[in-house]
Design a protein that fits this description.
alpha/beta; 15 helices; Rossmann fold; 7-stranded parallel beta sheet; 2 domains
């Protein structure tokens, strides 16, 4: 098939899933065309059957807000015609599904040509942004006009039906996935341990540091753990709340043991050295970063929020607590880190369970089947 993929190319779960999916589809013989404003962060320079089409918004002094969604629709329309695409797969509803609907209408009205639009709902497009009064109606319209809809968890499917009243939407749940060969703990040489000392536990957090991730809580949990055992906190990623996390580390006097590495595209070598992954998020539709940690044999301590309960097996691969309950998360972290047998058992279960339920080939095959089916 010839598949167009539109996603946010910046550091984040939906862009990561969309890019890994495109790469996997190309490896299975499909032709994949990324249509977005920048090369996706997990897309290496050249891969057979993978193409990148940049959306240029242009500049005009009248526009305080350049209309990216229209430029995207025009580029989608052009790429579909030029490369004879079969599918436009939009990741994150806003504004991608809206632009795809415009492109589809243009193709139909002007050229009597049809294109199938599939939209994958990832998270805050439904749980936060899409429910904002400014976007609710257009989000509802755009998802209802998609020819096929997938959501990354049962939680997100149910939340979409509740928030947008589209019980007949026919949303298929297709979870996030990992390439098991990449998240192989034994594959990587130690680097962090050489830096921080073999006797210290490594706690890790990976995200785009938005308010929903509650990065202050990450630092607070760590500070309590560090009171009891020698440890460091490794913060991977960047975003608006990084300064908050730095301030919290200073306030709690742990700043020398909190390391901000910035945006690192390939997180597997770092995760391979982690002892514990922290995700005390406010809301999480799935939690790709938690899945990548589990696949690397890293137990997860986080919030019992949204779809994270579908990823972390309570007491077996990690521990989930109420949102904001820093004390409970610190206690759970210490209980795992201070008991070698428990840590080893959780680590093995995590790696095994991630491979059993979320391996790339099975999940990508589900997307392929979804493209070929009726969708709804
Ligand atoms: O919805 C978002 O916040 C954007 C998105 C991203 O690009 O960071 O993250 C979401 O999509 C991921 C991939 O499907 C999920 O694993 C994340 O749980 C989800 N984030 C949230 O729900 C906060």
């Amino acid at each position: 098939m010839k598949i167009g993929i539109t996603c946010y190319p910046t550091y984040g779960g939906s862009g990561a899933v969309a890019t890994e999916l495109g790469i996997a589809l190309a490896a299975r013989g499909h032709e994949v065309h990324f249509v977005t404003y920048k090369q996706p962060f997990r897309l290496p320079r050249f891969l057979p059957r993978v193409f990148f089409h940049e959306v240029d918004v242009g500049r005009y002094p009248l526009f305080e807000y350049p209309p990216y969604d229209l430029a995207l629709a025009v580029r989608m329309h052009e790429v579909v015609r030029m490369h004879d695409l079969d599918i436009l797969h939009c990741h994150y509803a806003i504004p991608h599904a809206t632009s795809a609907w415009i492109a589809k209408e243009m193709l139909h009205q002007e050229h009597r040509r049809d294109i199938r639009v599939v939209t994958t709902l990832h998270g805050t497009d439904i749980t936060i942004v899409g429910q904002d009064p400014s976007f609710h109606a257009i989000t509802k319209f755009s998802i209802e006009r998609s020819d096929g809809l997938t959501a990354v968890s049962h939680y997100l499917r149910d939340e979409t039906q509740r928030a947008f009243g589209c019980s007949g939407c026919g949303i298929e749940v297709i979870h996030n996935f990992i390439d098991p060969t990449v998240y192989e703990r034994s594959r990587y040489q130690p680097a962090l341990r050489n830096e921080f000392g073999a006797d210290r536990k490594i706690l890790m957090h990976v995200s785009n540091f938005r308010p929903v991730k509650r990065v202050r809580d990450v630092v607070r949990i760590f500070a309590r753990v560090r009171e009891e055992i020698p440890s460091v906190l490794v913060m991977v990623g960047d975003g608006p709340d990084r300064v908050d996390a730095q301030e919290e580390a200073l306030r709690l006097g742990v700043e020398r043991d909190v390391h901000f590495l910035g945006k690192i595209d390939l997180v597997a070598p770092l995760l391979a050295e982690a002892d514990l992954f922290l995700l005390p998020t406010q809301s999480e539709s799935f939690g790709l970063s938690a899945l990548e940690a589990l696949a690397s044999g890293v137990p997860v301590v986080g919030s019992r929020a949204g779809g994270l309960v579908e990823v972390v097996k309570e007491g077996i691969t990690g521990v989930l607590c109420s949102v904001g309950d820093v004390d409970a998360m610190a206690t759970a972290s210490l209980a795992i880190l201070c008991d070698d047998d428990r840590w080893t058992s959780m680590s093995h279960s995590a790696a095994r369970d991630a491979r059993a339920r979320f391996s790339r080939d099975e999940i990508v095959a589900r997307y392929e089947a979804f493209y070929q089916g009726d969708g709804r």
